[in-house]
Amino acid sequence: MTETKQVIEQTEKYGANNYHPLPIVVTRAEGIWVYDPEGNRYMDMLSAYSAVNQGHRHPKIIQALKDQADKVTLTSRAFHNDQLGPWYEKVANLTGKDMVLPMNTGAEAVETALKAARRWAYDVKGVADNQAEIIACVGNFHGRTMGAVSLSSDAEYKRGFGPLLPGIRLIPYGDIEALKNAITPNTAAFLVEPIQGEAGIIIPPDGYLKEASVVCKEQNVLFIADEIQSGLGRSGKLFACDWEAVVPDVYILGKALGGGVFPISCVVANADVLGVFNPGSHGSTFGGNPLACSVSMAALDVLIEEDLANRSFQLGQYFMDKLFTIQSPKIKEIRGRGLFVGVELTEPARDYCEKLKELGLLCKETHENVIRFAPPLIITEAELDWAFERIATIF
Ligand SMILES: Cc1ncc(COP(=O)(O)O)c(CNc2cccc(C(=O)O)c2)c1O
Question: Which residues are annotated as modified residue N6-(pyridoxal phosphate)lysine in the UniProt record (predicted)?
Answer without folding.
Answer: 255
